[in-house]
Hints:
This protein has helices spanning 6-17, 20-39, 47-58, 63-73, 106-119, 149-159, 180-189, 211-225, 241-248; strands at residues 83-90, 96-103, 123-125, 134-142, 163-165, 171-175, 196-203, 230-235. It is of the alpha+beta class.
Amino acid sequence: MSGHSKWSTIKRQKGANDAKRGAMFTKVAREIAVAARAGGGDPDANYRLRLAMDKARSINMPADNIKRAIEKATGGGDAEQFEEIVYEGYGPGGVAVLVEAATDNRNRTAAEVRSIFTKTGGQLAGSGAVAWQFEARGLITVERDGADPDEVALAAIDAGATDVDTESDPIEIYTEPADLESVRKALDAAGVAVDEAENAMIAKQTVALDADHVRKALRMVELLEDLEDVQRVTTNVDIPEDILAEIAG
């Protein structure tokens, strides 16, 4: 599972520095809306909403935007309604791809997702075709700067984490999905500076491809994530360090 969050970190850094910032706000606002619609607008009673709000703050989303997204989602009959859909398929080199979307028009989203799979040498597949290659996990990241990896690992295991990757940058802490909140709270109490906490789909095993296919697979992921309706794309491709460095550029 090592290095799962590296690609996410690069995306966040790039998004904070270019025109994708507005698109990031749109996606996170939709994530907030879906969470508020499902579990109510009180973050103290809706952990999924609290996670979405934390993500919004991490990208410096204005408080008014966060409040507006919650109000729209909980505003009764006229509230915005988004349907959550997961698309499955194969990317360049046969890698498995999961596309998680939140949409108010499933026909539009399906057409856009299918078009990108086709254009980038992939193929959409039916439900269950590749999902078995991933597992739901809680993922907490801790920046290495100023953190002792061994101390972070000990605190995480004591808090109930199932695995810690002290070699990755940032440090990655994995939990059972239901334990994400309690582990994060315990880390906060132990003085560990949590960077992000989220529920994620993690590849059970990664697939090594030649450099050309890795670049093509990452290009597919990038194009899919540029779609407004797409919240997250996960693949089981193994991304070599030199290509990560090339992308981070």
